[in-house]
Structures are given as structure tokens and as C-alpha cells.
């Protein structure tokens, strides 16, 4: 399946607005509660998305374009979001995610990637050879993984309140593969 | 855990805007593709949410308030969305979901439910006794189940394109418990 970069940009450009519509001014009993010890809140996930946009996608794309597979990507710091969110409100994080995403998509367009660029390979520290096309598609898949996670975290706050209906709610059967 | 109806209304009021921000004008290769035979597209899910709002939540709440547990709810038609979506565009469905949800929340507020109302029981055709509080919480859980499903359906369209990164994307490990 050839990866259509325009469709991916279309999706990537919508995620901040979707999270903003879902989460802004929602009560903190929903946005600031997690799924249990060592899991994230919706607030944490937004901070993680900002951190990933700052350190992951465009920086890695540039490494592929400049060095190909001769220089592995820096490993991603899965706790980097803690620095992003310190002392900030959810509203501030949502604003920041909108800003950093818009900047990154402008940067992506400036790279003016052609099919031959998208076919180039870089070196992932754990996965080995990955193409720029796969990296771009994964940016969208990463957004969707965390939208999936946020819907699950919010639903978790209703686990007791739904009573016997719980067996019908698919999101409550989700094993939490995206924490 | 006592169920806070105001928080639930807060969440319910956000779902149409969140889906609108995520899906409107997204390419049809994302919104009109499913996860394989007998599964739904994102477009189908929006139609299902409209259908559930029309036939499920407020009508059932009124049955509880009027008849208690002496009259079981009408069973929910899981294919009712096919009638909702016939001949319509996704944009039209998103508009309609916004409208029907706003009307239903206005109706819910008009019921002016008190703790003693929320504690009343109705009779679910399969589950037996359920309270109005559980029904209201399930309305929110149902929205979240389908947001969870939509993120999974969209991610499915990237399954091949992400290549080796797939093992890191939790949404791609999701077994589809909400189809």
C-alpha cells in the first residue's frame, strides 16, 4: 500500500483541534485521572504528544535526509513529557500542541518530499532500517494510538458508574496496549 | 463511585465537536474504509451515534421515569445507522450529530434529574435492572467506545504503511472489542 503523504498531513493537522474540542475545560476528574498506578492521564498524553512533535518526527526525518542509515536516531525519551507539562494547565498544553504541530507541518511541507526521498532509509536504534515513508505514516499512527488511549482513560473513569452496561462497552474491554 | 451527571453532560456536549474536528473533510480513503468484512467505517460510526441518540438514551430515560422497571426498553437496532446514513455525506452526518446531541442534552436538562430520579431502576431487555444513573453514565461510555473505535479504524488504514514501527503502536494491537 503506497503511503499518501497528503492524506497523512490532513490527519496530522486535525489532531490538535480534535483534542482541543474533546478536552478543553472538561472537568479535572476526567482529564487528570489515570487508569491506575504507572499509567497516564489525558493531560499527560497531551504533553507526550508535544514532546514527540518536538523531538521525534521532523528531527528524525532530517537525520534520514542528511545521513541516510549511517546515523541512528536518538532514542525517544518516554518520560520527556514530564518536563513539557510541569507547571502548565491543560489549556496551555492544548494551545502549545496546536502551535508546535502547525510549525512541524509547515516544516514538513518545506522539505517538499518526493517519492525518492520517502523511499530513503534511516536507522532506528531498536528496529533497524526504516524508511522516511514509514516514519511519516507512524507519526499519524502515533496520534491515533494516543487518541485511542485518551478515549480509554476517560472511559475508565466511568467503569463503576456504568454498572451492568460495562459488558457492552468495547473500550472497557481494551487491555491498555497503548499505555 | 457516585456518578456526576454534570461531568457527564460536559463530556457528552464535546463529542460532536471532537468528531467534527477529526473527521470533516478528511480524505475518504480514511473515513470510508473499514477494518475488514462486517466492520464499520468512521462514517458508519457517526451514523450509529446519531441513531443511538435518537432511539436510545433519552427515550430510555423517559421509560424509567414513567414506568420504572415495569416496562422493558425496546431493544436497540444495531443496524439502524444504515437508515440514518443513506444518501448522506459525512459532513451532513456530522452536522446532524451536532444538532441531535444538542437537542438531547437540552431535553436531559429539562428533566431536571435529582438523586432520587437517578437511583430509579428500569428494565433492560437483556441486562435486567439498570438505574437511570447507570444509563446516563453509559451514554458517555458509549461515545468513548466509538471514539476508541474510530481511532482504531483510522489507524488500520496505516497498518501496512508504518512497517516495523507497528509493534510500537498500541492502537494496532487492539483486538477490536468495540466493533
What does this structure look like?
Two copies of one chain form a homodimer. Chain A has 179 residues and is mainly α. Helices cover 58% and strands 4% of the residues of chain A. Chain A has eight helices and two strands, in the order H-H-H-H-H-H-H-E-E-H. Chain A has a two-stranded antiparallel ribbon with strand order 1-2. In chain A, helix 3 runs parallel beside helix 6. The mean pLDDT of chain A is 94. Chains A and B meet through helix 1, strand 2 and helix 8 of A and helix 1, strand 2 and helix 8 of B.
Search tags:
8 helices, homodimer, 179 residues, 4% strand, mainly alpha
DSSP helix fraction of chain A? 55-70%
The termini of chain A sit apart by 28 Å
Tally of helical segments of chain A? 8
Quantity of strands of chain A, as a count: 2
Query: Mean of the pLDDT scores of chain A?
Result: 94
Mass-distribution shape of chain A: elongated
| Class from secondary-structure proportions of chain A | mainly alpha
What's the SSE pattern of chain A?
HHHHHHHEEH
Largest interface between protein chains, with number of residues from each side: A-B, 63 and 63 residues
Strand content of chain A: under 5%
Question: How would you sum up the major sheet of chain A?
Answer: 2 strands, antiparallel
Radius of gyration of chain A, rounded? Answer: 18 Å
> Assembly type of the shown chains?
homodimer
Show unreliable segments of chain A: none
Strand order of the largest sheet of chain A: 1-2
Amino acid at each position: 500500500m503506497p503511503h499518501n503523504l497528503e492524506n497523512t498531513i490532513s490527519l496530522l493537522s486535525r489532531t490538535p483541534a480534535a483534542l482541543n474540542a474533546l478536552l478543553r475545560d472538561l472537568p479535572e476528574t476526567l482529564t487528570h485521572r489515570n487508569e491506575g498506578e504507572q499509567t497516564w492521564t489525558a493531560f499527560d498524553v497531551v504533553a507526550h504528544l508535544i514532546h514527540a512533535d518536538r523531538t521525534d518526527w521532523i528531527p528524525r526525518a532530517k537525520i534520514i535526509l542528511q545521513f541516510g542509515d549511517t546515523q541512528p536516531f536518538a532514542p525517544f525519551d518516554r518520560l520527556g513529557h514530564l518536563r513539557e507539562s510541569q507547571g502548565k494547565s491543560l489549556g496551555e498544553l492544548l494551545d502549545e500542541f496546536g502551535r508546535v504541530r502547525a510549525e512541524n507541518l509547515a516544516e514538513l511541507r518545506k522539505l517538499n518530499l518526493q517519492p525518492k526521498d520517502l523511499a530513503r532509509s534511516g536507522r532506528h536504534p531498536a528496529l533497524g532500517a526504516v524508511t522516511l515513508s514509514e516514519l511519516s505514516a507512524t507519526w499519524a499512527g502515533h496520534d491515533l494510538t494516543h487518541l485511542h488511549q485518551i478515549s480509554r482513560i476517560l472511559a475508565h473513569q466511568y467503569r463503576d458508574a456504568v454498572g451492568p452496561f460495562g459488558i457492552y462497552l468495547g473500550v472497557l474491554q481494551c487491555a491498555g496496549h497503548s499505555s
